[in-house]
Structures are given as structure tokens and as C-alpha cells.
Amino acid sequence: MTENKNMKSKFQPTTEGYYGQFGGAFIPELLYPNVKELEDNYLQILESSAFQEEYKDLLQHYVGRPSPLYLAKRLSEKYGATIYLKREDLNHTGAHKVNNTIGQILVAKHLGKTKIIAETGAGQHGVATATVCALMNLECVVFMGETDIKRQAPNVARMKMLGVKVVPATSGSKTLKDATNEAIRYWIQHPETYYLIGSVVGPHPYPDMVARLQAVISEEMKVQLKAQTGNENPDTIIACVGGGSNAAGAFYHYLDDENVELIAVEAAGLGVHSGESAATSQLGEVGVIHGSKTILMQDEYGQITEPYSISAGLDYPGVGPLHAFLHETKRAQFMNATDKEALDAAFELTQLEGIIPALETAHALAVLPKMSLKKDQVVVINLSGRGDKDLETYINHLED
Amino acid sequence: MKSLKNIFQEKKNLLSIFFTAGYPNLNDTTAIISELSKNNVDFIEVGLPYSDPLADGPTIQDSSQVALQNGMNLDIVFDQLKSIKETNTTPLVLMGYLNQLIKYGEDKFCEACVACGIETVILPDLPMIEYENHYQQLFKKYGLTNVFLITPHTSEERIRKIDTFTEAFIYVVASSSITGAKGEISNQQIDYFERIKSMNLKSNLIIGFGISDAKTFNTACSYASGAIIGSAFIKHLSKHGTDNIAQFIDPLKS
Q1: B237 at the A interface (CB within 8 A)?
Q2: Domain residues for B179?
Q3: Which residues of A touch B98 (CB under 8 A)?
Q4: How confident is the model at residue B123 (pLDDT cuts 50, 70, 90)?
Q5: Contact call for residues B89 and B41 (beta carbons, < 8 A)
Q6: Are A124 and A142 a contacting pair, CB within 8 Å?
């Protein structure tokens, strides 16, 4: 939120929402008035003092920010580097998602909206949306793939307790992509609703708005690193990418600092070329999904491929347009981790540091063994979420 | 194939039917077009089945999924349409999503349309700004024209701009809903149709979304050059296959 308006960064979108060739607003005319209303107002709202005051107050007193930057000594020792964990898992509701939902619910209120819709994959965004809707006394409907409803039962229960209607998406692979389709269709039919998108995806201005709201992660990192290491820049930042909101937030204030290595980790599922994967940067090609031009997994006729990952938050066939641009320009290095590597990394962190990470986050941890690290290399891993919701998967893995 | 532009000059109360290529069976495309032509349908929208059809309701979504399972793809549908180019006289309009065109190759897609005698496409997720920046020129190169949609929430300024871009017709979305939603034509919708009609646009208007039977078709025709029926026809196909198409069309033409 401290973006310098005079800074002409190539990593900021154009007025039409483009990062290089990626982005834009590829929406049916039916959605044009909604998206236009948001586009015309979002910057003014985000930069207003009324918004800033309320947003910062809620982040501090309700979410519990700033989230700690923790030097993981045993993990550092194991990998021969200086590894810090940015503890987004300690936020209220257990992940970085709430940074965005707090911000967008305030935007929705400023626009006079009274009904909220959202999509969710792992359920973290659904829970974070349900939470802020309870807080603001707003009606909320969350769309979630039928497959994800089964594999993320604790989050479904939380949403229901928070008073939200959870609508199963039954088309396609019944996961995040399909939940997003259903949310968009509902939005078309109910243009009075506010669509609270959970990642840096969707038509402009969503990718930019969500990135700005998640940017608090790297804003804090700068201050915390300065205090702990004497230098506000780390050598390397690692974050997992499904749509890419936690990575966008962790990278945001370092995008123009080319000395800071940025690593985005995608889910390789059973292996990048196994046919059961969600490693979009490796398998995707340019196209349009959910209102933006980006790279996405598709067949030779442009039919969008069903992605696969053990992690419900990462099995998305696209990636936000900013990330497509970071990949194309090689500003960020894209790595990936399989289901098994992620599971192993989750157990390793738990046993070394006493922190059970979310399965999504475990993918970011899983690239450590693949990197050649130096002892004084300062690495920040964005610990985007906690693993309570994944206990069933973890227990099954223990029994295997 | 007749030119769509001529149809508008020749006739009023145009009936257009939408169907999904590859549904109910992979090779039904040419039979459906032939039956619709025989039954005096004025122009036909051929839907290119898509994995993520955001602007379509459940009926068309399901038909797309079945068509894709049947093995339908752009090469096959273009081959099917090419095979009837000389015999079919009813104008065809292709309706698909932008990603299909991008992946297939923009020029290759346009060339294939021309090879099939198609001059009009509807890409509901192609926004006006992208059209102005890029696609207008591309389509012009191939003599293709794009149809824009307007809704009750489209501003007058925007409608006027769409009017200047339009060569075939403006697709007037009957309500702010996705295709196939239930209900009759409401007073609110009539106010909207009257508002559009009174704008005296140069373009022809065709009303679609929520038109399902003779009653809604006739109402729509009193405010526009004609109307499009989609979901109701798909439902008919799923019950009766391609044999009884006359049974669906006859009541609409009376």
C-alpha cells in the first residue's frame, strides 16, 4: 500500500490492466458495468485516508499483523542458508488470504454493495471471505468445487458456522476453476453483487487490486529484515503459486530490485509431464481464462485442461497475469514440486520447527533441497498458510 | 450461402436457432443445419463447444460438455461446415469463445471461416476495447464481422459506439442473465426493448437469451428484426434427436 505513484515500474499494469501482453479485462458485455464501476473507483478508494485507516486498524487488531518474520534455525542449518519464514499462517483464519478479504470488503462497502460472492479452492479464501462478511454483517455466497468440498471438510464447516451459503460447483473437474466459473455466472445473473476474488486473477482491476492488498507482506518484510539483518533486501524470496496472490504480496515491493531473486513454486502433482499436474508455467500457453489474458493449460483447440494437485489451493490451470509476465521476462524463476515432495517438506518443517504448514505452502518449502544455497544467503519463504485444514491428508500420508 | 446482410433487407421477424456443434452426436451438425433450413429458419448460430463457457447457462454448458466428449473440435466442425458450403443457403453465424480463436491461430481461424462461407462471428468474451485495438483489423482482413452484445445495463454511449462497429446485427440480451434462464418477458424488459428501439440505431437488432417459444418470440419480434432461440432448441434435441426438428420450428413460424 505504500506504492510510490511516481515510480513507473514495468511491473505495474497499464491503465487497461496489462502487464506486457498479459492481463486486460476479457469479460462478456454482461459484466462490463460491474467491472467498470470497480475499475473507475478502486484506486481512489484504496488510496483514501478513510480506507487506509480502517484497513490498517483491522489488519493490526483483527488479523494480528504484522505477522512475524521468524529465523528458522534448524531449517537453516539443514539447508546451509539463512532461512526466514514470513508467518502468514499466524494471521486470523490461518493464511494470507485475509489481507485481501479485509481490503476488498471495505472496497465493497465503499461501493455500497450488500451481497458478496466468492470462489474458493482450498477453502482458505472462502473462510476469509465468510469471516469478513460476518464482521461486516453482509450476506455471502461461496462457490466451491464438489471435489474440494470433500477434501477440505474443516473449512467447509467453518464457512457454514460463519453463516455462509456454500454452493457446490459440479462441472468439469469440480475444483477451483469450476468454482470460479460458477461465481462468474452467478455474478452475471446478479449484477448487484460484489465479487470478492481471492487471487491475483480475473479481469482488470482485480489482479492489481489483490496484489496491492497482499503487498502488506513485502512491506512488512522490508522493515523486519532491516531490523533483523541490517538489510531490507533478502537474497531470495520463495512463494508457492496457484493463482499467485501470496507470491504477488511477497514479491511486490521487491519487483524492481533485480538483485532480489524471486522464486515461484508451482504444483507438479504427480510430475510435470505426468498428465496430472498444475505447473502452468511449464505446461501452459497464452490464452484467456476468467477474464484475463495469461498463460494457461489447454489443449491444441484451446479447451482448458483439468489441472491436478494434491493441494486444492494450487490446482488452477492458469496463473495471474503478473506472474505470466514475471515468467516471460524471467524476473521470477519458476520451479515446481510434486505431491510427494510437498508432503515430505510439510513433515520436515513440522519436525524441525514445530510448524505445520498448509499443503500449498509446503510446495514452496519443497524446493529447498533442489537449490544450491550458501550459508550467508538470506532466504525468505512466505509461509502462506497453516496446515490444520490438511490434517486428514497428512494423517493418511503417515499411515502409508 | 446467402449473405446475412441481405436477409435483414428481405424479411422481418427473423427466426434464428442456436445449436452446439457435436451435440447430441458428433456428426449431427450438417443434418441439423439441413433440417433447420428446410423449416425456413432464417439464420443459424453454430456454437463451438467450449470447456469453460462463462456466458452460457446449464443447458448449453451440458451440450458443450457432451459435444467435447463426442470428440468435437474446431478442425472437425470446420470440415463439416465446408462439406455443405455449396448446398446450404441459410446464413451461418459461429459462436465461440476468444480462447478457441487465440489457440487455433487467429489467421487460421479466420481463413477457416471464410472457407466455410461464414462472415459473422459472435465471441461473447471479446471486449470492445480489444476489438478496437486488434480484432477489428484482423476480421476486416478476412471480410468477417463481429456481433456485440448489449444488456439492460449497457449505457447509451456504449450502445451508440457498438452501433458504429456493427455490420450484421446487435445482439440484444433480453435480461441480465445467462442463457436459458426461465421466465416470460417482463414489463421491465419491454421498457428496455422500447428504449433501445427508440434510439433509432442504424443496426439491426436481434433479441436473444430467454426466448423459448412462440409467445416470447413474437413479443421479441415486435421490438427487433428477430430473435434467437438456443437453450429451448437444445432441450428439444436432447429429447427428440434430429428427427423431429419441424415439430419444434412449426409453432414458431405460425
Answers
A1: no
A2: 4-253
A3: 26, 288
A4: very high
A5: no
A6: no
For B52, the closest of A33, A188, A304 (CB atoms) is A304
HSE on the CB side for A286, CA within 13 Å? 13
User: Chains A, B: CB contacts under 8 A, how many?
Assistant: 103
Tell me if residue A92 falls in helix, strand or coil. Answer: coil
* pLDDT given at position A252: 98
Cβ <8 Å between B103 and A285: yes
Distances (CA, A) of B212 to A253, A288, B17, B21, B182: 54, 31, 10, 20, 9
Q: Find the CATH number of the domain harbouring B171.
A: 3.20.20.70
The count of structural domains within chain B is 1
Would the CB atoms of A28 and B104 count as touching at under 8 Å?
no
**pTM, 2 dp:** 0.95
Q: Would you state the cell numbers that stand for residue A101, as one nine-digit string?
A: 478479504
Whole-angstrom distance, CA of residue A56 vs CA of residue A60: 6
Helix (H) or strand (E) holding A46: helix A32-47
- Please report which confidence band the pLDDT of residue A376 belongs to, taking 50, 70 and 90 as the band edges: very high
pLDDT of A1? 46
Question: How far is the C-alpha of A28 from the C-alpha of A291, rounded, in Å?
Answer: 9
Q: How many residues does chain A have?
A: 400
- What region, left, alpha or beta, does residue A137 occupy, with left being phi > 0 and alpha being psi -120 to 50 degrees? left
Q: Supply A207's cell numbers.
A: 489482479
Question: Rounded CA gap, A304 and B95, in Å?
Answer: 17
ipTM for the whole complex: 0.93
Q: Tell me how far apart the alpha carbons of residues B120 and B91 are, in angstroms, rounded to a whole number.
A: 9
